[in-house]
Amino acid sequence: MAERAPEKTRAPAHGARRRTLRQAEERIAELEAELGAAQKTVRALLDKAERRDALSENAAVFEAAARMEQLVAKRTIEVEEKSTLLAQANSELRALTKNLDQIVRARTRALTESEAQLREKMEELERLNTMKAEFISIAAHELRTPLTSIVGYHDLFLEGRFGELPEKMRRPMESLQRNSQRLKRLVDEMLDISRIEAGKVQLFPAPCDVGEVACHVVEELRPLASDKHQSLLLQRDPVPIIEADSDKIHQVVTNLVSNAVRYTPEGGEIRVITDEAPQDLYAGKWVRVRIHDNGVGIPLHLRARIFEPFSDVNSAKHHTSTGPDSAGLGLYIARGLVDLHGGIITVESEEGEYTEFTVLLPGERAADTDSG
Asked: Which CATH code, of 3.20.140.10, 3.30.565.10, 1.25.40.10, 1.20.120.530, is assigned to 205-371?
């Protein structure tokens, strides 16, 4: 009997647990229902929020689209205005191009006509220049023979070869001799000019001592300088022997010294200086000849003309009946002969103070040329 009592006490406890379990299940169901309702509410709220965001985005898009439309309309107006301006500019450009083409064609025709006229004038000038050169050459040759005879007979008369001249005849004969010699110099210069311009001057190069040539020129022209009470001095430094035509170099120095005598006043001084050109001033080896005078000088604006033919840059007061006058050909001939030797001729001057001509000749020694 005592052993069955526990079964009665276990039965009520089992029922309490079932009730508690049922209550828990009911509570869970209520919580699940509340959770479902809460989820529906959240979804509704989310849907509503999404609709609001969509509406807000649509409004922004609509606003941006409106602004873009306004901008496009403004740009369209600007493009239309620029297109109109561009069309006007293109029209003006076409008109200008057409006018320019007409102007160019007219100028081209005028230029072509001018070139044709210039060609004709150049051909005519060349023809006249050729005729002039031929005339000078023929006239000089025709005059040279009788002049040589005239000058020769004058010399013979003054030397007394035909008997002693009466004293009253000597002065007129000396004047005739001077003028015939001047005329002969002019004829010789005209012949030289015609040969130089025709390219017919022939050089005969040989070992040449330029210092010796200058010495001979000074001795020959000293009487002319003495007639004007001028001092004609030679400063001769040792120079190398060069390959040159001694006669042509003699003619160059003679023309330059004669020019100095002509334009140096009475009592003036003329110096002929020969030396080697300093290499710090002139590249290479050159033999230098300088003719320095303290004469009237050459105006600056006329120095470029002194080597042109028939260029007498000084006034007629410097011409004398006793000096070595010429027709302004001496310097032109000197330059031509120096050029043929591959040399250089320059001038420095100060008006009323001095004039100095410088001749540079290639300083190759004869021995060097022979060995080459």
From this structure: 3.30.565.10
